[in-house]
What does this fold into?
Amino acid sequence: MTISDISHRKRYLAEGNVYLPHIAVIEKIIDETPAVKTFHFNFKDEKLRKEFTFESGQFGEYSILGTGEATFCISSSPTRRDDLECAVARVGRVTNALHRLGVGAEIGFRGPFGNSFPLDYMAGKNLVFVAGGIGLAPLHSLIWNVLDNRAKYGNIDIVYGARTPRDLCFKYDLEAWEKDSSVNMTTTVDREAPDWQGNVGFVPAVTEKVAPAAKNAVAIVCGPPIMIRFTFPVLEKLGFTPAQMITTLEKRMKCGIGKCGRCNIGEIYVCRDGPGFSYEQIKSFRSDEY
Ligand SMILES: Cc1cc2nc3c(=O)[nH]c(=O)nc-3n(C[C@H](O)[C@H](O)[C@H](O)COP(=O)(O)OP(=O)(O)OC[C@H]3O[C@@H](n4cnc5c(N)ncnc54)[C@H](O)[C@@H]3O)c2cc1C
Ligand code: FES
It folds into this structure.
């Protein structure tokens, strides 16, 4: 698989000045975990509200006036377009400021940027989604996209893990996927917990136990770099080739459009060429580069 196979280039939303954010209003906030909130938002401009399009896997540059800009994927599915969503982990300046905002607050949005998950390539195949912690955010968009077009795909395995039960994001959707008889859903936490009767173990080990078949399959793996690094060898052991494995890279970004050079790894600009890559594309990178 080459970059172009998994890059669906989208036209930039802002056809004039791509640095100019569009004003969006926060319409709903969900407390996912003590450190993660999902923000449902939509554009102030009525026309943009109607015309905005994006694909699963793409991201935006979100800004808070007077604080700065940060990169988050669009975690909602293009198949469910009442509003847009981003799930944000509180880690620093912008994310703390965002977590302090309430419903009705205005934020800036530039995008959608980056490539999308290769839905055409995935059609007709068995799909394996592996995620850890906030890494479920980009897959949340993709999983709903796939489930809303269920007939196009084969078997679906989802393995999702977090450190503790409290750290599991999108619990309402985990429940829905558990109940869906067309999905083989496995949720796990790293350590035993008093309020947890489910699987215990790290995501790579649990993926090995679930042992999804590699034949005619694509695995999409998103989560902390350490989880990704340990999951790829497990999938290889199960027979997946590097071309059958996809992930997203989260290099720090600034412009989001391949101009500033903030996010490059060698010749690749993660914002422009990614953030989605096959393992085949990135396996030659040093492990501290992704
Ligand atoms: C394509 C892409 C998609 C992303 N999607 C999401 C998402 O859906 N939800 C989400 O919560 N986060 C996401 N991130 C990460 C998010 O952009 C950063 O956590 C955010 O920019 C931090 O901003 P801040 O001002 O709060 O942190 P800062 O105050 O700037 O930094 C706080 C700490 O986080 C570290 N940090 C900041 N950004 C990154 C990064 N990109 N990689 C590694 N360490 C970093 C800093 O080095 C510092 O230690 C994504 C990143 C990329 C590149
Ligand atoms: S963020 Fe500027 S080149 Fe990628």
Notes: The pocket of FE2/S2 (inorganic) cluster (ligand 2) is lined by residues 253-256, 258-263, 269, 271 (CB under 6 Å). The chain has ten helices and 15 strands.
